[in-house]
Amino acid sequence: MPVSGIPDAKPARRKCTEPKSCGVEVRLNRWERRTLRRLVRRVRHADVQRRLLIILHRSAGWSYRRIADAACCALGTVSRVLKRWTEVEWAALMDRREDNGDRKIDSRFLKELTRVLQKSPPDFGWTRPTWTQELLILTLKKRLDVTVCRATMSRALTIIGARRGRPKPYVECPWSQRAKTRRLNQIKPLIATLPTGQVAFWEDEVDVHLNPKIGPDWMLRGLQRRVLTPGQNQKGYLAGALSARTGLMTWIAGDRKNSGLFIQLVLALLRAHPRARVIHVVLDNYGIHKSRQVEAFIASLHGRVRLHFLPPYCPDDNPIERVWEDFHANVTRNHRHPTLEALMAAGHQYLRTRNRKAQPSLIRVSA
Fold first, then answer.
1. For the domain with range 177-216+224-366, which CATH number is right: 1.20.120.530, 3.40.50.10070, 3.30.420.10, 3.40.50.720?
2. Fewest CB within a 10 Å sphere: which of 82, 243, 250, 300?
């Protein structure tokens, strides 16, 4: 590809080459030197900029070694660029890619690669369930009749912003899309337009395992980080409620995840908001939220606490799920706590710190 700004014609000049022991001598007149300096400031391609600097420095009488140090390149690169300059002059600034033919990574290739990555290999007749670069190359060859190497495929994946990550498991909601949308449209406006004297919370529970949740971490090549596990697992449970207005967490801990744990959380909300006329709690359809014990307890409050159930298997519509995801990332994943008590204490400390960080933003919003 030609370098923008390189003139096709130039005033006549003379170059002479000294004996091999002295290397190539480059002589530039004032117009040529000014043109090359202007190109150094304007060209964005690092390789072309390096060639320009090599020629400019040599014209100033610099030695090969000094040029290599200044341009951060090898002596062979300096020698090769200067030799080509004596042969083809301004064409030495090119990288000889103009003879490669048509580009393979064009908009058509990138769009098709994006469409392919939105599906799985079995959708294209492969038995392997996960993508590899080699499998992507074969798939694109079959669909576009274009063959690329792994380096080119890696560059194409970088261009479209693809990444290698962990898929997210999910369970499909048994409700129709219309019924699901109707239920969500009842909950979201309620939270957005809460009357004075009413508060709303997103509720969910989280399991805390003494056996660490294993997750990705940085480590040196050839060394795999080891996480000690106690062998016999123990469990603790947290029930939490995320304020829809302030983003603050209210939570309690228990050794069993049952209706009693949920009732204790509701009592904690009542103690934290004694002046609230109505407390709305948005929660999932887990069995402990619908037991007879819970129904009798909610009825005894005479409408002060109202439960709003989300559609089944819709964790993405409950913002507290993201809080628990951060909780696992900061507390339980790859943890090194020897006892469940120490692990639960770390969990309480994390949630208290989270609430303290949310306080300044709450004050700014209220002001």
1. 3.30.420.10
2. 300
